[in-house]
Amino acid sequence: MSTALNPARIAGCLGLLVLGAVTGAAGWLVVDLWFPGGLLLGLLALLGLFLGGRLALGTGPGVGGAAAGWFLAYVVLSIPRPEGDFLLGSSGIGMYAYLLGGTVLAVMCATMRGPLQRPVSDARTAK
């Protein structure tokens, strides 16, 4: 199913980019604050964001905009500050689990099928 690129869809992707950056920054900061609970809370927030982006735009690029914003927040927060320290330290396993878990959730949400889409085998045989 191919959808046309229109101004509303572009605005939706940009809005999801901003929401992804905000959710990502909050998630990155809460992972180290409360390790097991913060990791689960951050991953649940990402799941809600990615599923919401998928449902709002109806296609995978909705998830892509949110995932790009989430990863952009990681890049910006991991840049060393002029004082020489980092806002995000990579000392714990929580950061890596959040990075891997968020990536897995983004791929899952981007590749899932909607309830109205036909199976692949039916799509090939339909004329």
Write up what this structure looks like:
The chain is mainly alpha-helical and 127 residues long. The longest helix is centred in the N-terminal third of the chain and has 27 residues, at 7-33. Helices cover 74% and strands 0% of the residues. The radius of gyration is 17 Å and the shape is globular. It contains five helices and no strands.
Q: Tally of extended strands?
A: 0
The percent range for helix content is: over 70%
Q: Total number of helical segments?
A: 5
**In angstroms, what separates the terminal alpha carbons?**
15 Å
The major sheet is characterized as: none
H/E topology pattern? HHHHH
In terms of structural class, how would the helical and strand content be classed? mainly alpha
Query: How would you describe the shape?
Result: globular
State Rg: 17 Å
Low-pLDDT stretches: none
Q: Strand-residue fraction?
A: under 5%
Q: Give the overall average pLDDT.
A: 82
Question: Secondary-structure blueprint of this entry?
Answer:
Layout: H1 7-33, H2 35-57, H3 60-78, H4 93-111, H5 120-125
Helix pairs in contact: 1-2, 1-3, 2-3, 2-4, 3-4
Name its key features.
mainly alpha, about 130 residues, about 75% helix, globular, single chain
